[in-house]
Structure prediction request, 123 residues.
Amino acid sequence: MGTKKENLDQLITNIIQGIEEVKGDDIQIIDLRELENTVCDYFIVCSGNSNTQVNAIESSVRKAVSKALHDKPWHVEGLENSQWVLMDYVNVVVHVFQKQIREYYDIESLWGDAKITSVQSNY
Prediction:
């Protein structure tokens, strides 16, 4: 079995692949490890253009992680209206927003002390 860091890196890589597979937009990795009292190590935030795309991103992430790592989210919220879907993989929490909802909540600003990395998509 790999180290926790290797497992985390693989999980993040597969989550991002799942997002990119269905053209999720504006992917950010928020590293929370240096902050106190956080619930996980990383947030991965991305945007979709509609309920349909938000659902597709959630489904694609679930499939990518399941296929590569045989893991599934511990908890998923928000599929009822698909404006903000949260996928909890314990150490990594994925936030899939519709653009206007993401702008409204602006969680990147809430975690302004964290290291934020933008992922450049290949499409």
